[in-house]
Amino acid sequence: MSTIKDEEKPRRRRRSDVSLERDIMEATRALVEEVGFSNITLTRVMQRASVEPQIFYKRFADLDALFEQFTRKYDYWMNDIMDFETDDFEPEAYYRATLNNLIRALYKNRGMQRLLIWELSDDNPTTRRTAQLREANAETMVQKFDEIFKDSP
Fold first, then answer.
1. What span, in angstroms and rounded, lies between the C-alpha atoms of 127 and 120?
2. What is the DSSP letter of 143?
3. Does the pLDDT at position 150 exceed 70?
4. Is the pTM of this model over 0.70?
5. H, E, C per residue of 21-81
């Protein structure tokens, strides 16, 4: 005769709120890189993060809410592109280096590639917001280059 103890289910591992959110965001990042935003489902995110639906829905209302939070936390590559030093500052070299860093960063960052594709192919509040934030970031860069090149032909 089997006892209740023999038939116990395996214990689920307990995770903190921080680790649950990290696991969900990491699952989202991996899926974005693999299949892009448009092909992600809640089921796939929950499976990849190993979370039950009730746990997921305590944190996010739906997939759009997840994407909204994910894109807000996404480590946007533009911030690091202009972060380099040069002993002899030459505007043209600085501009060239900035563009080269931009190209390299985008080439290496599959998640950012997928985000840009999603923004171009899908019009929703999240894609509009991220595009507007990127444009605001770019405006700062444009103003900086206007100042650098103001006296150049």
1. 8
2. H
3. yes
4. no
5. HHHHHHHHHHHHHHHCHHHCCHHHHHHHHCCCHHHHHHHCCCHHHHHHHHHHHCCCCHHHH
